[in-house]
Specification:
The structure is a homohexamer.
Chain A lengths: L1 E5 L5 H14 L5 E5 L4 E2 L5 H20 L4 E4 L7 H7 L4 E3 H10 L5 E5 L5 H10 L6 E6 L14 H16 L4 E3 L8 H8 L3 E3 H14 L18 E2 L12
Helix pairs in contact in A: 1-8, 2-3, 4-8
């Protein structure tokens, strides 16, 4: 099975790290390709960046569908473009936030999330509510680091994440912790050891979810919210994105 | 006060109709300008179209901010780009779905929504939930018409909307009905008479909400989820959308 | 348009202050009249006072309807008599708690409320829940001051309110703060400056909401919960309040 | 133990029927007195009537407290004045709506409510939400009869109630039905036989709840929302209701 | 009326204490018998113990039904076997957790729970949600004592419970506190005095609830979730528990 | 990896069918063993049967842990013993109800469930609520067939399931359907073709979920609700189930 992992930002070092994280948990028969869109923000920190990563993400998913990929992972914790991608392709699409939250509820009564910046906290809180997690999600914390600091080995970003995770376990009495940024994917083992509770990374969880959906032959329902886009004209610079109305 | 009403789709006849609807309820001192983005779908029907209208909507809001507009209305019932716009400008931004729902709860114990196509139903249900309306929103109905049929005088679209509204009042025992598409803005008076319950149009409600926020000096909070976008690089075709990090 | 702002308590200095606050934000064509009922508590602090302010509030609204007012604002943060007034008059009626909460959600992801006494906290929490705000309302705080201390220039009430607002912003990470008492209406500008987040006053918000509803021709639905009172006998001292069954 | 059952309306034939219903289920040592306020509506049908029954209800509860009653039942399904009474007296106070809903959840997975008029449906829905019953309360039905028709032996009111109950069981698949009006208290046995599911009357349930609370020595908490009313002036006709600030 | 109080654990000293607590609040005509199952855990601390107490609890309830008991109380705060017992017998069955929570909401706007060990906290949180208490239940605390420490007079268990109760009142601003273990039944009077808020014990509350249901003739609905078990074969050691399909 | 699929009932033909269903979707490296407990009901239809299947399920899971299985699937749609098993073993445990619901939300905006008998409907509704699915789960339907009729080739059970699935899609406008019984595992392909929406079987979904958790090294958190059982005495027939206090 071939899975396309789309890093919604355009920082290629992070795309590589995400690809490595995905490959490290993929099943033997799973081929992982990690890509970024060819346009958009180098990091996604809040609502504005989300607006400008989604077109490239959806475009890349459609291209991946043409290329024959069997399923898609969106590797940004805000799950940007998730519903649009499900509309645009026949194959299943999984976001790393939803994947981590679903997984956490199957191993623990509760979880906390540790994210990067304060501006992402309400975004994740809203996703948690949308996914039905309000009784499991104890609190969303910000480690107070920019996303790309995680790419900078000299920064104190990892220590700040660890401190936030420890604070979350202590203050929330949470039984598990989710790392709320794809750029933290390489910290799970270390932080599980540091904290004594399971620490989940969304990239890894999403790979397993998408492998499962693909092998079950489950794609997005084409009745209702994820029905194929209707054929219509798009104007201006976006004319080329107009849906043709067939799959 | 100068209000920019952004029709997120690029069908100019609909933009004009929305502008007329907005002007017809605007206060004496309010100047309404109705525009469309210069790129994107001619109608917004589901998640895919949403992805490709948002960049133009946000861009147009920022341009409007530079042009000195005091507030913004997003005139598509899916409220696309609402949170991104709030991040991108200092002035208040109101979506027509949220405006209509807030207004409905101040005049009735419950409401139903009549939208266009089935694919929009889960989108509106999710917005209703996000806005805290799950106990007031009885049901979302689809009139089973494409958005642009509302622009076609020869179509039976208006009759289908009326029939759906009557069905909603009868079946849901709702005390009010919200028209779930900006293209229905000219039907409210007629349908209020036909049904005997208040029928609300989001464009009108949003104009009054934005007038209120502007005159109170209330813009989006710049602490947390709507903080200014951080300065960073955007790559590829979207390089020009990169935030500079100052307002 | 003529708006009657009803201060549900009978402290006239507070009624004047509320009237001033309302007038300071009213649109050019809006005429504000601020009144108190001719009977009832001098301040409303909890459920008991509420019981004895409501009859006078509803009576005053009906009188206002006869006098030709176009809309009504109830200027106590417990929104006392809100639903009864909507039943009793054709014109729209807005409470200051609901108005502030609706407004806050259009400019911020979350809000906290700062009220007067601890006994009001569960009252406001229940209103927040009724209005669908449980995911936006972070916490309701009591500044621990009686309502009328706000009328006493020599008291430390203002400082206590400020301290509570600062505490709320710090502890709840809220993106906005609502002042939970009509008597705090004159503190919003000062406190917005002190805190750096938008501080909302319900009186101002309600004036804009009622202006909006009036200009849209939206009154309370007369189908269902706000149907006209049925004609019937009232006995004893309250005989004069018996509804005649016509509007 | 002496229990005062307050019928919030002033129709004495109904008060007698309620008193009989209460006595028929009271424990051997319980003395039931059923009274009406000396002022107010002859029936309570919606928000307006509620406003004008509450002062008399609270007044009667306070008088009952002075007379040495050990607990209070409010025998109108809208639970009018419930929270005000809890503030005003030391003894426990139970409403018939809350009592029936709590009881229903202990014998069935779900319930429907059959009330009188459509205008009461949103009132009861809101109470159900306030009491945390949204997942147990399948639907609130109106039998489409005025409250006092239940006092008129020649009317078809009983048959309409039965038909509504049967409809509710069939349509909602509810495991129990609550009669949503104190005037239906004499129909429970008959309707349980007709339907095959438990049919609950709030008056009976509330008598048992108040007996329980009284015998456990549990009165309303005087910390927070039900704290004693603060001493203050009431003006005009209501001066005599001013709280003295002591119990 | 004869009530069987089933202590789901098999520590007989605790069964006696529970029986004493039940008798101390029972009505004159109520005969209380307190028993334990003949098999199972000596204390119930978390999900595992629950699995192995339920068969004995249900068996004992059925035996009690044969013996002519009129109603059943399950005296463990996890309410283990509650729904199974309701299916298995015609008489009403009440759990001490649900009873205490229902009672608390009739005397206070909010409550906190003080339980024994941290592992019980998510169990009680889930029960609270199931019973619709998420808006009333402020927090569940663990006093950090094993259940049987409450039976050991020399231990500091009582002091730890008191400390946790005081902490809950202070931190949560709760208006009442529920003791989350049947073994704390003898501490309510003392802790009500220590804290100034009503402290509720589930055993006492459940006795009053079951007395009420029995005297109203209300048993579990036999339509839907609590329908009689269908006749079928059980295999192996559990063959003797197979339902015969008649009551 | 070795997965133990536990059919909580003791009907071996059904266990075989479940095992086949599991193997048909298992990854190449996954070895599936399907077993039943050595004691308990031949089918699980409601709360009573649940009580008597759980001890055998938990016992079998513990034995499986000793035998070196890497993860566990509980193959009854009521998810009986799920939390107890998570406490009892170190490896991850997944229920088929939760697995199907989590999967459905990743491919569709909504789902309906088709179960066997009416008595199971409230059980599944409660699970849906516990798993946070109240906004995704449109309705739970009963096909009105006993569980074991699905094992009887001559019965009309399959047709009844199909009819119920078609009814659900039509009436609920659901975008997917979950089969609410492990005995329906062989019907998914057929019913997906019949209905045009994805039809999900919990056994298949749970196999993929457990494969994912195992390969990520995620077991149940041993902090909080799933902490190891404390060492203690169990009395009577259940003495042998007493936890030793070590893993």
């Amino acid at each position: 099975m071939r899975i396309l992992v789309i890093n919604p930002n355009t920082t290629l070092s992070m795309t590589e790290k995400i690809g490595d994280a995905a490959r490290s948990v993929a099943a033997p028969g799973t081929e992982i390709t990690a890509v970024s869109p060819d346009k958009g923000p180098v990091s996604i920190e809040g609502h504005y960046d989300e607006a400008y990563c989604v077109p490239g993400v959806v475009e890349r998913a459609i291209q991946g569908s043409v290329e024959g990929y069997d399923g898609f992972v969106l590797a940004c914790f805000d799950d940007p473009g998730l519903h649009s991608c499900r509309t645009a392709v026949a194959q299943p699409v999984v976001g790393i936030c939803e994947a981590a939250m679903h997984a956490a509820t199957m191993i623990a009564s509760s979880f906390s999330v540790v994210s990067t910046l304060a501006r992402s906290v309400p975004v994740i809180e809203d996703l948690g509510h949308r996914y039905g997690m309000e009784r499991r999600m104890k609190r969303v914390w910000a480690a107070d680091i920019p996303v790309l600091a995680l790419e900078d080995e000299g920064s104190s970003a990892r220590e700040k994440v660890r401190d936030a995770v420890l604070r979350a376990v202590e203050a929330d009495q949470s039984e598990s912790v989710i790392l709320g940024c794809a750029g933290m994917a390489d910290l799970t083992t270390w932080l599980t050891h540091e904290t004594g509770v399971p620490v989940l990374d969304g990239v890894a969880c999403a790979v397993k979810m998408i492998e499962g959906l693909v092998s079950l032959g489950l794609g997005s329902s084409k009745v209702g919210g994820y029905a194929w886009p209707r054929a219509k004209t798009y104007t201006g610079d976006f004319a080329r994105y107009a849906p043709s109305g067939s799959a």
